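Minutes, project check-in

Agenda point 3 was the complex the collaborators sent over. CS summarized: two entities, 594 residues total, and the question is how they sit relative to each other. Sequences were read into the notes so everyone works from the same version.
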Amino acid sequence: MPDLVLKGKAIKLWDDISTDDIIPGRFAHLRSNLPELAKHVLEDAAPEFASRARALTAGCEGKAILVTGKNLGLGSSREHAPVVIKMSGVGAILAKSAARIFFRNAINQGVPVLLCDTDKIGDGDELEVNVTGGRIVNLTSGITLSCGKMPPIMSAILEEGGLIPYMQKHKDFVITG
Amino acid sequence: MGKTLAEKILSLKSHGEAEAGDVVIADVDLAFVQDTTGPLTIRQFKKSGFETLARPQQTIIFLDHAAPSPAQQLSNDHIFLRRFAGETGCPIYDVGEGICHQLVAENFANPGDVIVGADSHTVTAGALGAFATGMGSSDVAVALALGKTWFRVPESFLIELDGAFPRGVYAKDLILYLIGQIGADGANYRALEFGGEALAKMTMSQRLTIANMAVEAGAKVGLFPADKITRDFLREHDRGNKYKPLSADTGADYERVIPLNLSQLEPMLSLPHAVDKVRPVAQVKGVKIQQAFIGTCTNGRLEDLAVAAEILMGKKRHAGTRLLIAPGSRQVLIRALEKGYIESLIEAGAIILPPGCTACLGLHQGVLGDGEVCLSTANRNFKGRMGNPEAMIYLASPATAATSAIRGEITDPRDMI
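CS then shared the predicted structure for the full assembly.
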């Protein structure tokens, strides 16, 4: 299988973005209407995020890449958080660290999360993200960043596009070591 | 080599030798959803092609987050969840029964169980010695269908507790202090395991408060050993036969050992808008509050209401401060009525909310106005958490909330009790 590689522009945010920042609890009544819910992505915390992501993905420039500092997605287990990020046009997430439930949820939604030194990435930088190899080339600065490996089961889920497609195919957990 | 509690439970449930860092497939003893994560869980379950539950009697639906529903869409989500329960035969705890984590503690969690819930505060059941953790909807959907899930076996921190709580200091102060020390990501991916001599006198209610907030330090689980106090709690809840002693092995390998002396603690609180911005209450005294909120899966138990009622008995809330009280479950409400706590609280000017999550997550029953300040006994104070990003939330113990409600400003409970 060829390496999963994504190209796109960084939208850089900060440390400690909670799932309440990503999709506040007050919109819980929209959780069964995902297109409506997605309109409120990061509405209070980063009001410009949705329009920037839309602008980046409207043309042929590739996907938006969300880049944050530490402890991304702390808080609630709501899988709606990575869902609305994905729906806004984000193809990959880079962070210094990510809260564990959010990390797992994003992978389950087929959105790669790579942990790396995001201080080396500026807002608007052009990035090439090799998800399989855990390598990020910052095409703007020329710097290459490497990330830690995720457990093989997570890579396998990501390769299938998320946990649900994985289960549609395998019907069970298949650990390949 | 000795095993931590996390390694011990996951070894048993994965039918092998689980060591920190391993990835295992473990049997799931209980899987549950609530009303804001359940609809997506069920859609993911169906989309995967699953039709039946692996263990219908060990799958539970709780309607607690929007209870009773404040919006037609949420009412329709409730209908969807009730229909799924009807189709699959799983139990459902409908509106008014209480908060999922309180009901799991009262009715289901046992030492050595693996519990997954589509709610981050599933960690609460770690108080009973269960490996209980929050997951997203897709993961729980798969657990419902297969009766198992995958885990990376976490490294553990041992929090070694000794001493005794001084007057005015409670379990909430302890866990806030710990989170302030290690930070909101200080235990990310790790297990927090609690031990030490202080456990012998630590009630189940206190343990539940502490385990509940393990996730606010990023932890996967907050685990207590199962001991005499666990046994007594299980007996009181008609399942004494489910008790088995459980503790970490001597010589278990901990990534970090953090000693904590209860005697040296003082009342603590979290400043807006981060749980780990922790300060002694004494340093923040005098901040005016428009709302005090006592309840939630962190502090909505009988002991919490007893502390509040004792402080508020014969007194009145400040005219400028609304006082909201939400018992964690129907059983908590009934016992609090029997003991006279509810009467004392109502006479002091409190509003009694139905058992459930109520004001905690900003859907209903206590949404804050612009610039308002709430002193809450909940576990989260993120910006916008209680429905308004222009409001401010401080987190503290029920005693601090009760004394602050009387004075209308943040008050050190030791100044009044």
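Noted in discussion: The CA atoms of residues 103 and 314 of chain B lie 31 Å apart.
Follow-up: revisit at the next meeting once the mutant set is ready.
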